[in-house]
Every structure is written in structure tokens, then in C-alpha cells.
Amino acid sequence: MRTREQVGLADVQDVYSGAEGDLWELIMGQQIHIGGFPSSMDLCAKAAIAQKGGNAVDLCCCNGAGMRFLLHFCGLDHVTGVDATPIMLERARERCTADNLQDKTTLVEADACATGLPDASMDLVWGEDAWVYVVDKAALIREGTRLLKPGATMAFTDWVEGPEPLTAEEAERFMRFMKFPSLASLDDYKNLMEKEGLEVQHVENTNRYAPCIDLYIRMLTEQLTFDALHIIGYDQALMQTLGAEMQFIKQLADANKIIQGLYVAQKKR
Ligand SMILES: C[S@@+](CC[C@H](N)C(=O)[O-])C[C@H]1O[C@@H](n2cnc3c(N)ncnc32)[C@H](O)[C@@H]1O
User: Fold this and answer.
1) CA gyration radius, the chain
2) How much is the pLDDT for 79?
3) 265 and 198 in contact (C-beta within 8 Å)?
């Protein structure tokens, strides 16, 4: 597990309260994760949760897209979204209400590592490409495990270090740009889940990361440049810097140094 102590929850809240979060939504859509809808469908299939009903919690729910995905496409009865950024929770509330899902959703402002939700209350603990922003991943997996009913499922994807290790300089530049306080390897999460007594069923590289980074660069340079400039106050110098950092991420992705990991685990009965 790599850590970067200069970044904390307040920095992550700043990202998702301002232009940077809006830029991610511009290039990724409402589902701010690698691979969008197909990635969510893949995770849902591997977690074998479809149409079983029950309660889910989306840890780091952002604008609530994952919550709405679980209700519209996976047959959950109720989804609680936990996020630490008030603006994102407000957006989630508006969008869940617009989809007429206000009675099937609950939004909680909290650190995902200390949700305050009851023990063993969830049939599914869900996360999509967000836990990389959480400082203490061991505490996060512990909290997720606490929320699971016996036999229930934890399913998540995340940005993780790939089979080719980053150099110290690459890790520093990547985590600084992305505002990641820590970065797990594929095995780090597996080890954390096993430590909590979960039975791990899937640990996979989705192979979606590099092609999606290519797609985002193309969106920014070939279609959405004006929209991106609008979000950052028409600052062309900043746009160039962002473009350079995206190209750097592309190099890491092409070298298999950063990947999207997919995980499914079950709490023992
Ligand atoms: C990339 S977005 C999540 C995207 C979302 N899962 C999706 O698929 O659309 C990251 C979110 O994590 C939230 N976040 C980061 N660290 C957190 C923490 N420790 N506790 C709660 N929320 C956190 C941020 O506020 C932000 O809304």
C-alpha cells in the first residue's frame, strides 16, 4: 500500500466540491468510474446480486449514480449512499428525487470508514472507483465488513497499482495530481478483506483502464474541449497542464502500472 501523507479527506472534499469533480463528470458522465455502465453491469453479474432485493450501501456514493444503478438494474429494494462531500450528497438527493427514488434511498454525510449505520444491516456493500480516495483502507474494509449481514456481499472496483510497479517518482506525481492519499495494489485489498474474515471470490484486473484513459483524452481534445475550458474558467494554461497529466496517466496505464481492480467477497454465515 502506497501512502501520501500530504493528502487528506479535506483535499478530496475540495476536489468533489469544485471544478475538478465537474471535469471528471464531464468526461466520464454521471457514473464517475472507469467503464461506466458496462463496468457496473459486470460487477453486478460477478457479485450475483441481481433481482434478489434487499438493502445496499454505496460507500462514497458521489452524485448517487451507483445508487440509482442498483435500484434500476439490480433489483435492490433500498440503497443508502454515504459520502463526505455535502455538494455531492445534494446532487445525489436531487437526482434520486428526479428518478422518483426518494423513498428507496437514504443519504448519509459521513466518512465511509465510520458511517454510523447499524451492524449487519446490509445485503450488499458497493463501491465503484472511489475507495482509492479513502485515507485508511483497512478501516474502510473493516467498516464495510461490519455493515454486512452474514452471507452478504461486498463488491467494488477501484484504481489500483498494476502488476508493473510504479517508480517512487511516478507514484508521487500520479497521487499528487489525482489527490489520492493512498494507493492499494490488487493484492492489498484481497489481504485486507481476508484479514476481516471475508471469503474472497473475485480479484481481477478488468483491463478497462487503459482504453478508458484513451477515451477520456480523446473526449477532452476532440469533442469537449470548450466545455472543459468553461469549467476551469477558460484557463488555457491550466488546460495544457491537465492534458499533460492525463498523458502521463496514459503512459502508466499503457505500461500496466495502474489498472482497475474488481473485487467480490462474502461474509461467512
Ligand atoms: C470518484 S467519486 C465516486 C464515484 C461513484 N462511485 C460512481 O461510480 O459514480 C469519489 C467520491 O468519494 C467521496 N469520498 C472520498 N473519500 C471519502 C471518505 N473517506 N468518506 C466518504 N466519501 C468519500 C468523494 O466525496 C466523492 O464523492
Assistant:
1) 18
2) 98
3) yes
Q: How confident is the model over 59-67, as a mean pLDDT?
A: 98
User: Which atom of ligand 1 lies at the shortest distance from residue 85's CA?
Assistant: 25
Whether 264 lines ligand 1, by a CB cut-off of 6 Å, is no
Residue whose entry in the numeric block shows the C-alpha cell 450475483:
48
Check pocket membership of 66 for ligand 1, CB cut-off 6 A: yes
- 127 Cα nearest atom in ligand 1: 6
How far away, in angstroms, is 130 Cα from ligand 1 center? 5
Task: State the maximum Cα–Cα separation within the chain, in Å, rounded to a whole number.
Answer: 56
Nearest atom within ligand 1 for CA of residue 40: 8
Q: Residue 176: pLDDT above 90? A: yes
Give the range of the structural domain holding residue 150, as residue numbers without chain letter: 2-266
Q: How many domains does the chain have?
A: 1
pTM of the entire structure? 0.97
Cα–Cα distance between 219 and 233 in angstroms, integer?
18
Name the phi and psi angles at 5, rounded to 5: -70, -15
Give nearest CA residue, ligand 1 atom 1. Answer: 130
- Atom number, ligand 1, closest to the C-alpha of residue 31: 9
Phi, psi of 221 (to 5 degrees): -95, -25
Ligand 1 centroid to Cα of residue 131, in Å, is 7
Whether the per-residue pLDDT at 50 is higher than 90: the answer is no
Answer whether 83 contacts ligand 1 (Cβ < 6 A).
yes
Q: Is the CB of 60 under 6 A from ligand 1?
A: yes
CATH of the domain at 87: 3.40.50.150
Q: Where are the alpha helices (DSSP H) in the chain?
A: 9-17, 19-28, 36-47, 65-73, 86-98, 137-147, 168-178, 186-195, 209-218, 225-231, 236-254
